[in-house]
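User: Hey, my collaborator sent me this sequence without any context and asked if I could get a structure. I don't really work with proteins. Can you help?
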Amino acid sequence: MNQYQWLDQYLLAKPGAVKDFKEEWQWWRYQVGGKLFAAILCPSPQYNPTYAGKDLLNLKCDPMLAELLRREHPQVLPGFYSDKRCWNSIDLEGALPDELLRQMCDDSYRLVFEKLTKRLQTQILEGAQ
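Assistant: No problem. I've predicted the 3D structure and written it out in structure-token form, which is a compact way to encode the shape of the chain:
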């Protein structure tokens, strides 16, 4: 995951983004307004070989775009332990272009942020100034 050292800073630079470690899942979670928009994880060998032992980034995605991205990029998988219609898992050991990964992170954040109440959105944006 060395080629993605920038990823943590990029996710945390989003307005209102917070990071924690979910011990039971062994996931680094990135949330806004208490809602997950990204997670970094490495499923253990007991899971499906598609996911097991891989450094993954889970991101929310528009369902139509999620399917397209999976068809076009072998390192974009249906979301691990997530609703596979609207979450993708990106294999961080793959060769996904940084520009596309940044866009996917931005889209995930936007999708989650837009579902927050207007009041919470305003509080987050005012706190980011």
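In plain terms: The longest helix spans residues 98-115. You can pass these tokens on to your collaborator as they are.
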